[in-house]
């Protein structure tokens, strides 16, 4: 029979930190400086905190949704330094000094972003849970097109990608709409692309 585990001797335990927790626990926390929706923010977070949880739990910006928490649905998409990312797959401390734009930073009900206006006009949502991620992803996808970034649907990797339905379907494939509003989303993106061209 194996002996039962015992508590480590006092000499083997982690030293206490001045704040009352162990030094090991204190080492797990860090301060990250971000610009979120145009405002400078400093957060002290556990180094294992995702950017998604930092936005939702620490900054109370709940427009960025937690869907699958595995990077498969795109509901948590936000723009970081102009590029769209799944915030559930990225640690907050990885983005020291970054500029983060969430759905709240794209526009307001009084002054909506053209993509937000197009989603409303084309009824590009039903339950609305995926909509913030869809909109942020669409804004990022159009920026990629303007910058000439190819996708798997691009026929010529050296040529400027075209704003085609196939191209946009490929670029938006990481954003799932469980309600199936894809055709309306596609129309909204096409309209916003024309408006921002």
Automatic annotation (TrEMBL):
NCBIfam families: PRK11433.1
Residue ranges occupied by any 2Fe-2S ferredoxin-type domain in the UniProt entry: 30-106
Region (Disordered): 1-23
CDD domains to which the protein is assigned, alphabetical: fer2
Highest rank taxon of the organism: Bacteria
Amino-acid biosynthesis listed as a keyword: no
Keyword field: 2Fe-2S, Iron, Iron-sulfur, Metal-binding, Oxidoreductase
A molecular function (GO) term: metal ion binding
Protein name according to UniProt: 2Fe-2S ferredoxin-type domain-containing protein
Gene Ontology terms: cellular component: periplasmic space
Xref: PROSITE patterns: 2FE2S_FER_1, 2FE2S_FER_2
């Amino acid at each position: 029979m194996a002996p039962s585990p015992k508590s480590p001797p006092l000499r083997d335990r982690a030293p206490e930190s001045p704040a009352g927790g162990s030094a090991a626990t204190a080492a797990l926390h860090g301060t990250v400086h971000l610009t979120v929706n145009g405002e400078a923010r400093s957060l002290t977070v556990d180094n294992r905190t995702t950017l998604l949880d930092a936005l939702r739990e620490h900054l109370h910006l709940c427009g960025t949704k937690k869907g699958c928490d595995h990077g498969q649905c795109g509901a948590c998409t936000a723009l970081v330094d102009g590029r769209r990312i799944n915030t559930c797959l990225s640690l907050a401390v990885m983005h020291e000094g970054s500029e983060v734009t969430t759905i709240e930073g794209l526009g307001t009900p009084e002054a909506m972003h053209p993509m937000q206006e197009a989603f409303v006009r084309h009824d590009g949502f039903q339950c609305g849970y995926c909509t913030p991620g869809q909109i942020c992803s669409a804004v990022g996808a159009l920026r990629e097109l303007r910058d000439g970034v190819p996708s798997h649907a691009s026929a010529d990797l050296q040529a400027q990608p075209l704003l085609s339905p196939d191209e946009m379907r490929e670029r938006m494939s990481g954003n799932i709409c469980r309600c199936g509003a894809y055709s309306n989303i596609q129309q909204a993106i096409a309209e916003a692309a024309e408006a921002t061209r």
